[in-house]
Design brief:
It is built from 11 helices and 8 strands. By secondary structure, it is of the alpha/beta class. Helix 4 (about 50-65) crosses helix 5 (about 80-95). It starts with 5 loop residues before the first helix and ends in a 13-residue tail after the last helix. The structure holds adenosine-5'-triphosphate and magnesium ion. Adenosine-5'-triphosphate binds near residues 28 and 53.
């Protein structure tokens, strides 16, 4: 349990880097830039394991604690990913000794006494409808959420004047994340290849480079939107053909 003096609390309110440090996250350079930024449209194109979800959790919790009556929606492509993200947020919140008492802590949402709410949702257009007035919208693994979701959230922001941050490892030359990353709209953009992450070693990357198909390596670790010319099927076609939501009709017996 951390007991903060008023002075310390004010410092954390105005300085998200100090807040992250209090949570035990010594920010990497790009993380520090992000935490110091006041941009309200942010795209992060980052390597796997660079700390995207950690940053989402820090930003969400900071907003909730220090801006009363905030509604923060955190979206991720699947239920498992949104649970994971919520786990990080709730973990940080516990680490702080719950400085603002929770009013209700349902599995994927946190309601604070100051009227702020953090809600994590698996990202489909259907889950987002019904929420309005979000002041911060975070989309984790944005390259893998449905485009319809993006089109559903834009009008919400128009009314609330809220901020939007999409963080992702690339996933082909497709979808809103790719379009916006390469488009001309005014986003603050961050590109973070694995080589800029101090926790990912050269030796590990050498191993991955040797083991993975080159286009996968570039996608996962070098922020590259891949669609190789020698690929017969585009990533989109493969995606449409493969789903893990349907039980196979026949199972191998043996
Ligand atoms: N600044 C930091 N200092 C120390 N550890 C960090 C920092 N940022 C992230 N981490 C740690 O690095 C690991 C990966 O972080 P995180 O899950 O946020 O990355 P990610 O980019 O979301 O990964 P993935 O691509 O797998 O979703 C976690 O164990 C996290 O605690
Ligand atoms: Mg993540």
């Amino acid at each position: 349990m951390v007991t903060n003096s008023v002075g310390q609390d004010i410092r954390m309110a105005v300085d998200r880097v100090a807040f992250a440090t209090e949570l035990g996250v010594e920010p990497d350079q790009w993380q520090e830039e992000l935490l110091r930024s006041s941009a309200d449209r942010v795209l992060l194109n980052c390597s796997r394991q660079s700390g995207k979800s950690t940053m989402s959790a820090v930003m969400a919790l900071h907003r909730a604690l220090y801006h009363p009556r905030s509604l923060i929606l955190c979206l991720a492509p699947t239920l498992r990913q949104s649970q994971e993200l919520f786990g990080k947020i709730a973990g940080f919140y516990r680490d702080l000794g719950r400085p603002v008492a929770p009013q209700g802590e349902r599995k994927l949402s946190l309601e604070l006494e100051n009227g702020s709410r953090i809600i994590t949702l698996p990202g489909s257009e259907k889950t987002i409808r019904g929420f309005s007035g979000a002041t911060l919208l975070l989309v984790d693994e944005a390259s893998r959420v449905d485009d319809e979701l993006y089109y559903a959230i834009r009008p919400m922001l128009a009314v609330s004047g809220g901020s939007l941050m999409m963080l992702s490892t690339p996933y082909g030359k497709r979808g809103v994340f790719f379009e916006e990353w390469t488009g001309s709209h005014a986003w603050e953009r961050y590109e973070v290849p694995a080589s800029q992450c101090p926790r990912i070693s050269e030796a590990f990357l050498d191993e991955e480079r040797a083991d993975l198909p080159p286009f996968i390596y570039r996608q996962e670790y070098e922020c590259s939107f891949e669609e190789t010319e020698d690929q017969v099927f585009t990533i989109e076609l493969i995606d449409r053909a493969v789903t893990d939501e349907v039980e196979p009709l026949f199972r191998a017996v043996g």
